[in-house]
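Worked example

This section walks through a single chain of length 192. The input is the sequence exactly as stored; nothing has been trimmed or padded.
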Amino acid sequence: MPKRFNNLDAALKYLRSTGATQDAVAPDAPAGTQLRKYQDFKAGKIKVSYTRAATSNQIALDPVALLPFSGEASSTDKFIVGLSRRAKNNLTDAAVTLAVLNITETLTGANKVFGFTPATVTIRNITGTGSANKDSKITGAPYKIKGTSSSFTFPLGTKAATGSYSEVRSAILAAISVDGNRSASFKPEILR
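Given that input, the structure is written out below as tokens.
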């Protein structure tokens, strides 16, 4: 379970009687409490499901090519990676272009490389300004959510063998900073 449930897991542990074995079942927490709702969830008595908006579905992956950051300085070997059609259709909403991301739809001379995961940027668009309360499906506790938003994840590569990750990152941040309602998070590439 995620770290945010550590306190609830500890509370269930302390409900057990002193000297109980590690796998002993804790008595039921008081009815109507967050702890009881969490206990029922862990026991499988309640099922939690999250519905995803149709506009949030990935649709399909289209192949694109990029120069990896981990390539040799003189290398021009491009790698083939996937770009979701949903993200591709929303380049304008994310305020980026294929050129800014240093990816191309031209696959000539590019190769699919096993063990390669491209660097990615996830751009989040916040279209609502207020915050609202929502109840947790697991504990029933209220929490605040920001205004409506959408996010898109794009692979990114280097411009040329001399381009650095920080230069590409700066170019993307400059492109999305035109509108103050966007944020970006980056993940580096992995080559095993």
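What to look for: The CA atoms of residues 64 and 117 lie 13 Å apart.
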